């Protein structure tokens, strides 16, 4: 009984009655703080279509770049069902003012980018012709010409690829996929090994044919189908394999040494010259032997040999239509008399 | 002897989980736990991704400790880079972490009160929690998933006007927590449902590798904040612990930790130094085993980075998996009724979303590619530090 | 008639979490607090499928849920409505990536009447979506069958 009276006393207070009569929804329910990250708003005309928002988005497929034919604009469109409202796209957007706006994230303007990159762009000093077209093409100002060199500032770069489109020289700006560097190294190792084996086998075949002229240029084709199948087991993405192969074949120059034992007179001049000790004299059989696994392809034996036992060829490569075209040129090195 | 299955969806459980209780009359003799309703494969998805994306992914491992997960990853990455953030960054991180802890503890206690059908207290605490969520939203821009911490600092500063609001709301929260704590301490029926139920001794807690408020409720004096440099240098942190080891101790411990966290935030705001809030930090390749005190206990991140800040391999160990074992092995044995079993289960503050990142598939054609804690330890030769080694020293 | 009238004013909802980050679930739990006070709008939250009118589904559909979610949906008495909450339930969100183990979205498995985007949506958004879309969905469900 006493508790019932206590409850009545509690409820019948004037303050409580007043509150009950004037009950209102608290403003906090509808009030949204200024920092609240809603779905980003897009200001179409500011977009430079660099794709930084797409690279940054942790939820794949939430942002897509769309081309508007009428207005000739390219701008990002946000899929509301996939967007996780993290605001990272707004933070990394490189335009000024920002194309994407949400909460107060668009106020973050750092001097360095923390954009997660799939590719890194590097200027190749050896191939660059210093035309400075990439400096003009870069919308962000990440590329500068400094000390007679093209320098790409990695902390500003958003990996849009405009520089590579503007570059007139193939391979002068390289895009490197950084997510699986070790796998790419493996691909490079296997392709070089495969190419060398292939060339050796093919040349052996050709030499046996009549009418073989060692002074002429030799051409052959390496079909990529088998290699691609093997490559897919290392990296599932075919695009990365092809771009890696392209980078390899653009710069690769291979020295091929063919050892013709028939011409050898066992003079043993080459045995001491070889810096690796790859050439040895077999006393039991009285023959000079070369170990191709130890060979550096330095061509010293080719220059030393008075009989022309080691033939030296320089191989160059070109990737075209799922094939690697190989050109073998006999070397022009002077042979010691 | 009979079996009572509870879950996966049950009014008493807030998250999908299957509990199979073996009972004799009203006494719970044994229990089985069936997990797997929450598996998303967060660790698998994190492999081979840059840290910026992994930070968002770790945040979504658990929505309640969504500050503890990214901060463990980020402080680990900073340790690899040998980067020491400015004092202001450290203080801001402490403020955010403690606000997150208050929100988590309030939610845990409120769910316990809902589980013992004391709805008044449960809903009072939920309402108190809203004030903390307001602060979190004001600072970071989202109520639950903050996306606020970043390698080399924090995204947005806490301004003077924000500090005033924080202090004002904290005063209100403190008075309300004091009132609710008194209600819990003195309420006779609450005491009947809580005291001397679900007891776990200190030895059992250490044996079952319990962590966090569950272990501290059983008299284990350990908290990873004792070993965190910021807390050592600026806050003279001392963990709160109780010796009872029952439901009452665990809930009371959480109430006390809320009050302690409020004091830490006040100290941090008083002494908040000036300085930059974000600095550049590049991440080299390396491996680390980093631990941090999440609201539920020890959180371990063991990971390996490659160049450009890419996460090669990652293993996360969350507190609930150990606490769940402690609950099933030791606490359920001391449950007088089946209704109490659910209450006991809620006192360990289970977070199933945290726990489920690993699944072993035995079906045909599907291999388990999971690289566990053991493999990482084996490969890199780091000494296997299990959660309890440091607690064992404190015995 | 009377049933329809009553049903519009008192919606019983059942929360099903199919494996997300818990964020959406605790936002639904936050609706119970005095500030939002879900019950003043005639919405009652509990976890029993056999008594509810509408399912609130959150989370990416984890492996164990693929069949159980259909079973669960069948247990709800007719008429029924489904509200999918959060980016995970709508599309898989951050967990729908290469090499994932989830079978989001929810709409692939059971019919969904209303969608609440966001990661997580604010409690006010959830409450307004339930109030706005569930009564017409329940009414139209009857016409369909």
Structural class of chain A: alpha+beta
Task: Write out the strand line-up for the largest beta sheet of chain C, numbering strands in chain order.
Answer: 2-1-3-4-5
Strand order of the largest sheet of chain A: 9-14-13-10
Kindly estimate the percentage of residues of chain A that lie in beta strands according to DSSP.
15-25%
* Fold-level CATH name of chain C: Rossmann fold
- Give the fraction of residues assigned to helices of chain A: 25-40%
Integer tally of domains of chain C: 1
Measure the end-to-end span of chain A: 126 Å
Number of H- or I-type helical stretches of chain C: 5
Total count of strands of chain A: 14
Runs of chain A in which pLDDT lies below 50 for 5 or more consecutive residues are none
Strand segment count of chain C: 5
Mean pLDDT of chain C: 85
Q: Which of globular, elongated, flat, extended, rod-shaped describes the shape of chain A?
A: elongated
How much helix is in the residues of chain C?
Answer: 25-40%
Poorly predicted runs of 5 or more residues of chain C: none
- Please report the two chains with the greatest interface, counting residues with C-beta closer than 8 angstroms to the partner's C-beta: B-C, 42 and 42 residues
Portion in beta strands of chain C: 15-25%
The CATH architecture term of the largest domain in chain A is 2-Layer Sandwich
| N-to-C SSE string of chain A, H for helix and E for strand | HHEHEEHEEHEEHEHEHHEHEEHEE
Q: What is the CATH domain class of the largest domain in chain A? A: Alpha Beta
SSE layout and pairings?
The complex is a heterotrimer of chains A (about 325), B (about 400) and C (about 140).
Chain A: H1 2-11, H2 14-21, E1 41-42, H3 52-56, E2 63-68, E3 73-78, H4 88-92, E4 100-101, E5 119-123, H5 133-137, E6 143-146, E7 149-152, H6 162-166, E8 173-177, H7 181-208, E9 218-223, H8 225-234, H9 238-251, E10 253-259, H10 269-273, E11 279-282, E12 287-290, H11 300-304, E13 310-320, E14 323-330
Antiparallel strand pairs in A: 1-4, 2-3, 5-8, 6-7, 9-14, 10-13, 11-12, 13-14
Helix pairs in contact in A: 7-9
Chain B: E1 2-6, E2 18-24, E3 27-34, H1 42-46, E4 49-50, H2 51-59, H3 68-81, H4 87-115, H5 119-140, E5 149-150, E6 153-154, H6 160-186, H7 188-194, H8 202-207, H9 212-217, H10 229-235, H11 247-270, E7 286-294, E8 297-306, E9 310-317, H12 320-331, H13 338-347, H14 352-355, H15 373-380, H16 389-393
Antiparallel strand pairs in B: 1-2, 2-3, 4-9, 5-6, 7-8, 8-9
Helix pairs in contact in B: 2-3, 4-5, 4-11, 4-13, 5-6, 6-11
Chain C: H1 2-9, E1 11-17, H2 23-30, E2 43-46, E3 54-58, H3 65-75, E4 81-85, H4 86-91, E5 114-116, H5 123-144
Parallel strand pairs in C: 1-2, 1-3, 3-4, 4-5
Helix pairs in contact in C: 1-5
């Amino acid at each position: 009984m006493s508790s019932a009276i206590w409850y009545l006393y509690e409820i019948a207070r004037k303050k409580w009655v007043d509150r009950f009569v004037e009950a209102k929804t608290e403003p906090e329910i509808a009030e949204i703080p200024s920092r609240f990250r809603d779905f980003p708003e897009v200001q179409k005309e500011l977009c430079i279509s660099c794709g930084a928002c797409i690279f940054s988005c942790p939820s794949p497929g939430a942002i897509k770049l769309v081309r508007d034919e009428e207005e000739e604009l390219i701008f990002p469109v946000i899929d509301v069902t996939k967007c996780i409202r993290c605001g990272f796209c707004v933070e990394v957007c490189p335009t000024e003012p920002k194309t994407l706006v949400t909460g107060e994230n668009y106020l973050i303007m750092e001097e360095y980018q923390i954009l997660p990159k799939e590719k890194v762009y590097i200027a190749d000093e050896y191939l660059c012709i210093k035309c400075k077209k990439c400096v003009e093409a870069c919308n962000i100002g990440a590329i500068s010409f400094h000390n007679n060199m093209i320098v790409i500032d990695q902390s500003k770069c958003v990996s849009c690829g405009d520089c590579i489109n503007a570059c007139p020289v193939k391979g002068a700006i390289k895009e490197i996929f950084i997510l699986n560097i070790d796998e790419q190294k493996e691909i490079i190792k296997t392709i070089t090994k495969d190419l060398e084996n292939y060339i050796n086998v093919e040349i052996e075949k050709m030499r046996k044919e009549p009418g073989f002229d060692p002074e002429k240029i030799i051409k052959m084709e390496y079909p990529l189908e088998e290699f691609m199948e093997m490559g897919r087991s290392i990296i599932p993405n075919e695009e990365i394999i092809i771009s890696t192969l392209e980078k390899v074949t653009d710069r690769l120059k291979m020295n091929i040494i063919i050892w013709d034992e028939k011409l050898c007179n066992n003079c043993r001049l080459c045995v001491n010259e070889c810096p690796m000790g790859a050439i040895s004299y077999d006393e039991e059989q009285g023959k000079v032997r070369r170990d191709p696994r130890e060979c550096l392809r330095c061509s010293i034996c080719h220059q030393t040999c008075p009989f022309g036992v080691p033939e030296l060829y320089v191989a160059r490569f070109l990737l075209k239509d799922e094939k690697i075209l190989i050109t073998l040129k006999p070397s022009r090195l002077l042979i010691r008399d | 002897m009979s079996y009572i299955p509870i879950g996966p969806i049950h009014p008493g459980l807030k998250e999908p989980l299957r509990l199979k209780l073996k009972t004799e009359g009203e006494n719970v003799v044994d229990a089985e736990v069936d997990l797997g309703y929450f598996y998303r494969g967060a660790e698998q998805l994190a492999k081979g991704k840059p840290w910026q994306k992994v930070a968002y992914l770790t945040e979504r491992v658990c929505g309640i400790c969504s500050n503890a997960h990214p901060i463990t990853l980020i402080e680990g990455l900073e340790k690899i880079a040998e980067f020491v953030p400015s004092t202001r960054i450290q203080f801001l991180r402490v403020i955010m972490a403690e606000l997150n802890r208050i929100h988590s503890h309030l939610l845990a206690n409120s769910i316990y009160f809902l589980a013992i059908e004391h709805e008044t207290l449960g809903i009072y605490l939920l309402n108190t929690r809203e004030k903390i969520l307001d602060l979190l939203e004001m600072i970071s821009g989202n109520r639950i998933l903050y996306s606020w911490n970043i390698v080399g600092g924090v995204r947005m500063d806490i301004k003077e006007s924000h500090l005033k609001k924080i202090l004002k709301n904290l005063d209100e929260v403190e008075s309300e927590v004091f009132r609710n704590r008194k209600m819990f301490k003195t309420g006779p029926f609450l005491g009947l449902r809580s005291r001397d139920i679900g007891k776990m001794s200190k030895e059992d807690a250490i044996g079952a590798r319990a962590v966090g408020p569950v272990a501290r409720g059983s008299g284990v004096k350990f908290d990873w904040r004792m070993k965190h440099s910021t807390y050592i240098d600026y806050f003279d942190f001392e963990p709160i612990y109780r010796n009872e080891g029952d439901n009452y101790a665990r809930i009371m411990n959480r109430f006390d930790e809320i009050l302690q966290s409020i004091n830490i935030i006040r100290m941090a705001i008083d002494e908040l130094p000036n300085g930059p809030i974000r600095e550049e930090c590049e991440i080299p390749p390396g491996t680390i085993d980093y631990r941090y005190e999440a609201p539920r206990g020890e959180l371990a991140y063991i990971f390996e980075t490659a160049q450009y800040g890419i996460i090669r391999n990652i293993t996360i160990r969350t507190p609930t998996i150990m606490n769940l074992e402690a609950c099933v092995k030791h606490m359920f044995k001391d449950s007088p009724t089946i209704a109490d079993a659910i209450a006991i289960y809620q006192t360990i503050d289970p977070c199933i979303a945290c726990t489920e990142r690993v699944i072993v598939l035995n079906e045909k054609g599907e291999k388990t590619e999971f690289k566990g804690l053991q493999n990482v330890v084996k490969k890199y030769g780091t000494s296997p530090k299990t959660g309890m080694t440091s607690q064992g020293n404190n015995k | 008639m009377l049933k329809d009238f009553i049903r519009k004013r008192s919606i019983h909802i059942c929360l099903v979490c199919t494996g997300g980050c818990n964020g959406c679930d605790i936002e639904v739990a936050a609706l119970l607090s005095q500030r939002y006070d879900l019950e003043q709008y005639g919405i009652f939250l509990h976890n029993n499928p056999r008594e509810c009118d509408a399912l609130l589904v959150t989370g990416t559909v984890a492996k164990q849920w693929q069949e159980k979610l259909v079973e669960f949906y069948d247990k709800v008495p007719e008429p029924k409505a489904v509200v999918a909450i959060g980016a995970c339930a709508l599309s898989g969100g951050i967990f729908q990536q290469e090499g994932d183990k989830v079978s989001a979205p929810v709409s692939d498995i059971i019919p969904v009447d209303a969608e609440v985007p966001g990661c997580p949506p604010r409690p006010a958004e959830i409450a307004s979506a339930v109030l706005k879309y569930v009564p017409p969905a329940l009414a139209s469900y009857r016409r369909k069958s």
